[in-house]
Amino acid sequence: MTVQERRARERVEIRELILDAARELFVEQGYEGVSMRKVARRIDYSPTAIYLHFADKEALFKELCGRDFAALAAVFQELSTIRNPKERLTACGRAYIEFAVAHPNHYRLMFMTPMNLPVGEEELKNRGNPDQNAYAYVRSLLVECMREGLFRLELTDADLMAQTIWAAVHGVAALEITQCKADAIDWRSLRERSDLMLEAIMHGMARTSEHLPDLTKTP
C-alpha cells in the first residue's frame, strides 16, 4: 500500500468515526445541543480536525440523514420483486419496523430527533423519486394500488394514506425502541403487534373481496 493509499484510507476511517460519534450525540442531546466541539471531544480529536471533513454541524447532520434515508430506501427497493402492490406495501411496513429495530440510533436520528433545517437542492431533487426516497416509494405503491382498484374508491389522497401508514408503523417501531423493555406491560411479540397493525390498516383501506380484481390474470 502506498503512502497516498494509506492516507486516503485513514481519512475515510476518521470520517466514519466522526459520523458515528455525531449520530450518538444528536440522538442523546438533539440537534441544538450538539456542537462540532462536542463531536471532537467525543472522539478525542481537535475541532480543527473535524472541520477538515465537514464544513459545519448542519453539513454533518445532513450527511448522516442522507446516508440513513438512502439505506431505508434501498431496503424498500429490495422488495420490488413482489408483484402484488398491496402485498409489497405490507412487506414495506414490516421492513420499516425491522430497519428501525435493527438500527435504533439511525432510526432515532431520522424520525425521533427534532430538526428545522432548510431543504437542500439534492433533497428537493430526490423528494419525489421512489428510487431514492422511501416516502415517495410508498406513495407510488399506494397510487398503483388505487389504479388497480385494490382500495375503497373514496380513498383518493395518496399522501394522506401514506402519512397514515407511516404514523402506524412509526408507532410500533418507536414503542419497540423506547418502551418494550419495561415490565409494566405484558408486551406481545414485535411480529404479532406488527402483523395485527398492518392487517388492520390494509383491511380498513381495502375494497370488499367481491369487488377486488384478480391480479393473477394476465391482461
From TrEMBL:
GO terms for molecular function: DNA-binding transcription factor activity; transcription cis-regulatory region binding. Residues 35-54 bind DNA. Keywords: DNA-binding, Transcription, Transcription regulation. It comes from the Bacteria. SUPFAM superfamilies: Homeodomain-like, Tetracyclin repressor-like, C-terminal domain. It comes from Acidisarcina polymorpha. Residues 12-72 form the HTH tetR-type domain. Pfam families: TetR_C_33, TetR_N. The keyword Transcription regulation applies. This is Transcriptional regulator, TetR family.
